[in-house]
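Technical annex, item 7. During the second reporting period the consortium partners agreed on a shared format for inverse folding records so that results from different sites could be compared directly. Each record opens with the tokenized structure and is followed by the designed sequence. A conforming record, contributed by the partner at site C, is shown below for reference.
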């Protein structure tokens, strides 16, 4: 999810510099809602990874593209490049520097650019530069109405008091402890704020625990909304508290300020909130980073990178966020 949203500043720059261009974007069908209402894209090709790659290859071969950009740099996209043929451009992933930083804790990063700006290296033949804008997610009117009706049904979200909490993450070591989320939610509602918990079906139970701890001014939306709906809920929020996850970038893309909790990952990887009103909370520990994307358990067993970040610190960070 985050990787798709992080490409949107480049898409915007290409459309601005080349207003008559035909821009085709290829992504997994699960992530198509992130781009389905983006007016800068001419054609959105959504594919199911469970289907043979040959079908997508055949479709792309039939097109006559002047430029082909690989903004993923994965084994799958590499196989697609090889099978489609033609000239492709990629971007620097800095795999060696990342590996050395994780394994040896030596920082060899010379390129300190955010990954959003590294993507522009793939478009070096298109005469584009990053602008001053952030990520983009265009929300449909029905999704906005659905989000507003949901919040109104619970009697929350009026007057700019809503805080969105995102407790989930694909990997366990990126998750702030549930007890911390419960304390945060209870503290926020006691101070007069409303809370909505977001996430997928996997966070439904955790979201319920957090909402119960927060009382009547909290609602659990985890597992109830698609990507467009989650974006709409985030757009209604005064701010969002998240880990280093796709919904962090979604909040940025809809213009919602973010308090981001970084544990096993670090800024050098280039995935902090991009050009947004954001605060990153993290701990300076000798064991960080321990992985590129998180893992099933803390290698040292203490998970201090996130356990040591307190709910009170998050409350203070929310208070200091620029309006």
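Designed sequence (site C submission):
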């Amino acid at each position: 999810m985050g990787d798709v949203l992080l490409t949107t500043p480049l898409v915007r720059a290409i459309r601005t510099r080349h207003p008559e261009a035909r821009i085709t974007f290829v992504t997994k069908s699960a992530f198509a809602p992130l781009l389905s209402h983006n007016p800068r894209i001419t054609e959105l090709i959504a594919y199911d990874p469970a289907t043979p790659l040959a079908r997508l290859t055949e479709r792309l071969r039939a097109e006559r593209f002047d430029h082909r950009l690989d903004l993923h740099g994965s084994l799958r996209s590499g196989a697609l490049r090889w099978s489609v043929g033609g000239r492709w451009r990629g971007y620097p992933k800095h795999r060696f520097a990342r590996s050395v930083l994780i394994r040896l804790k030596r920082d060899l990063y010379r390129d300190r650019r955010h990954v959003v700006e590294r993507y522009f290296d793939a478009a070096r033949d298109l005469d584009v530069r990053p602008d001053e804008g952030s990520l983009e997610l265009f929300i449909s009117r029905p999704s906005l109405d659905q989000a507003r009706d949901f919040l109104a049904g619970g009697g929350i979200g009026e007057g700019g008091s809503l805080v969105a909490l995102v407790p989930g993450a694909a990997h366990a070591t990126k998750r702030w402890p549930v007890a911390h989320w419960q304390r945060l939610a209870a503290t926020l509602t006691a101070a007069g704020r409303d809370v909505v918990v977001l996430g997928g079906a996997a966070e439904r139970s955790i979201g319920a625990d957090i909402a119960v701890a927060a009382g009547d001014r909290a609602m659990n939306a985890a597992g109830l909304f698609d990507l467009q709906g989650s974006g709409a809920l985030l757009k209604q929020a005064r701010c969002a508290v998240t880990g280093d996850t796709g919904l962090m970038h979604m909040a940025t893309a809809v213009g919602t300020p973010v308090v981001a909790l970084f544990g096993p990952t670090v800024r050098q990887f280039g995935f902090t909130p991009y050009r947004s009103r954001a605060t990153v909370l993290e701990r300076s520990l000798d064991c960080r980073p321990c992985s590129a994307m998180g893992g099933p358990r803390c290698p040292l067993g203490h998970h201090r990178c996130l356990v040591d970040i307190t709910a009170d610190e998050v409350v203070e960070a929310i208070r200091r966020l620029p309006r």
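Residues 141-320 form a domain with the Rossmann fold fold (CATH 3.40.50.2000). The first strand starts at residue 24 and ends at 28. All partners now use this format for quarterly exchanges.
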